[in-house]
């Protein structure tokens, strides 16, 4: 009876979601027909964001993940990280790959890897939903290089935002995974007595593909997935244009200004844009010239925690073939957004007392743009593809050392 009720609920949810998407699509099409020039410019803006920032940030992680899973490297890493992940988040060690790649590659890398782990039966539904909630993080390259350096002209602010973003994400993850799943639901490795090398060889035999076949499949599936993500970004860019042209943004800004003053009115436009798309939303926050620096930073922190409905749609697309639910993911993103914004405001005075930050926001000025700013806006994240892979290796090595310490401590305690 319960299963029947759940099926009815899911069917009703999908029907409503389909109706909303259909109405949105009709409105977007009508707007494109009525305003072709503006729609073309907004779609080009979305394409630029995808090509400069999203594609180079995600492509190497998508390909490496496919290859690493086929070669059994992910399984071996899981065996090494198992003590750390089970102690901290009650997740199997193989989840460490999703956490590390999601932290460095940015959204939606974590969702892609989590979906693959769930499809292969390496995590349960409960574990997959927890992992999906805590692995959806922004890339440090995006926060520090693009937002802080290129958009705001203040790199130190990027470090501040990145620390709070990851700290609040880990805090939400720790709280989120505290309820222990039933013992029968836990996927514990029956190969715990085997070495990571033995586990890797077994995974290779189970996969059975040659390296050439594996490489071709990895490139093909990764590029296909990125094309889908690009389509979502372009669609939401056009949707933001629709909202602007229909006067919804101006009306809400006027209402907010009449209720809470001019600051609220200035925050309304970037708030709405950030609700839909994180990259363009971050730039909108950097251009909110009527806001103090603290509230500007808090808005960006909230945006990074939320991720944007564009990213949410990408996560839905990547997890479509799994039983991972969207509701827990959306709730985790909302909590992450709120906590990050609160921490940004609460710690702003200590941050500025150290000599960082400024009383007024720093905006991107074409006449005084530094070389770093020019590179970030002109080339996006393409120059950082190789360094990001190095950051991934360092992060995995750090996780491994922590897991080794926990394993040694546990062995000494049980003697």
Structural class: mainly alpha
Provide the low-confidence segments as ranges.
Answer: 1-6, 183-191, 359-373
Number of domains: 1
Work out the helix count. Answer: 19
Shape: globular
Query: Could you state the oligomeric state of the chains shown?
Result: single chain
Q: Give the mean pLDDT.
A: 80
The end-to-end distance, rounded to whole angstroms, is 49 Å
Short description:
This protein is mainly alpha-helical and 415 residues long.
List the helices and strands and how they pair.
Layout: H1 2-34, H2 36-71, H3 73-88, H4 95-105, H5 109-119, H6 125-134, H7 140-152, H8 155-176, H9 196-207, H10 211-245, H11 248-260, H12 262-276, H13 278-286, H14 293-306, H15 309-318, H16 326-346, H17 348-353, H18 371-379, H19 385-413
Descriptive keywords:
415 residues
Structure overview:
The protein is mostly helical and 415 residues long. The protein has one domain (39-359, 366-413). The protein contains 19 helices and no strands. The chain has helices at 2-34, 36-71, 73-88, 95-105, 109-119, 125-134, 140-152, 155-176, 196-207, 211-245, 248-260, 262-276, 278-286, 293-306, 309-318, 326-346, 348-353, 371-379, 385-413. Helix 8 crosses helix 16 (326-346). The termini are far apart. Mean pLDDT is 80; it is low at 1-6, 183-191 and 359-373.
């Amino acid at each position: 009876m319960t299963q029947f009720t759940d099926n009815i609920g899911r069917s009703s949810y999908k029907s409503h979601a389909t109706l909303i998407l259909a109405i949105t699509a009709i409105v977007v099409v009508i707007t494109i027909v009525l305003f072709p020039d503006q729609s073309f410019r907004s779609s080009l803006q979305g394409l630029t964001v995808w090509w400069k920032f999203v594609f180079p940030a995600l492509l190497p992680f998508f390909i490496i993940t496919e290859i690493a899973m086929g070669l059994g490297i992910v399984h071996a890493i899981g065996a090494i990280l198992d003590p750390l992940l089970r102690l901290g988040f009650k997740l199997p060690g193989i989840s460490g790959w999703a956490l590390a790649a999601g932290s460095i590659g940015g959204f939606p890398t974590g969702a892609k890897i989590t979906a693959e782990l769930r499809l292969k039966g390496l995590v349960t539904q409960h574990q997959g939903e927890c992992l999906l909630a805590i692995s959806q993080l922004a890339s440090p390259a995006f926060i520090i290089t693009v937002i802080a350096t290129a958009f705001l002209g203040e790199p130190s602010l990027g470090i501040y935002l990145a620390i709070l973003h990851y700290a609040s994400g880990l805090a939400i993850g720790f709280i989120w995974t505290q309820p222990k799943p039933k013992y029968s639901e836990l996927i514990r490795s029956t190969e715990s007595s085997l070495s990571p090398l033995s586990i890797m060889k077994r995974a290779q035999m189970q996969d059975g593909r040659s390296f050439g076949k594996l490489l071709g499949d990895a490139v093909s599936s990764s590029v296909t997935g990125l094309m889908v993500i690009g389509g979502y970004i372009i669609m939401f860019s056009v949707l933001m244009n629709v909202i602007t042209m229909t006067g919804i943004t101006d009306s809400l800004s006027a209402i907010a200004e009449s209720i809470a003053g001019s600051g609220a009115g200035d925050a309304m436009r970037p708030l709405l844009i950030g609700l839909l798309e994180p990259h363009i939303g971050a730039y909108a926050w950097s251009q909110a010239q009527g806001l103090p620096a603290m509230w500007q930073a808090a808005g960006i922190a909230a945006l990074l925690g939320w991720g944007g409905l564009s990213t949410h749609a990408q996560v839905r697309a990547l997890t479509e073939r799994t039983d991972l639910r969207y509701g827990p993911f959306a709730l985790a993103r909302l909590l992450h957004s709120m906590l990050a914004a609160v921490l940004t405001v609460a710690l702003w005075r200590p941050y500025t007392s150290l000599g960082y930050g400024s009383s007024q926001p720093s905006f991107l000025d074409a006449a005084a743009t530094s070389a770093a700013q020019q590179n970030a806006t002109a080339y996006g994240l393409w120059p950082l593809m190789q360094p990001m892979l190095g950051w991934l290796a360092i992060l995995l090595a750090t996780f491994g050392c922590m897991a080794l310490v926990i394993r040694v401590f546990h062995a000494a305690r049980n003697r």
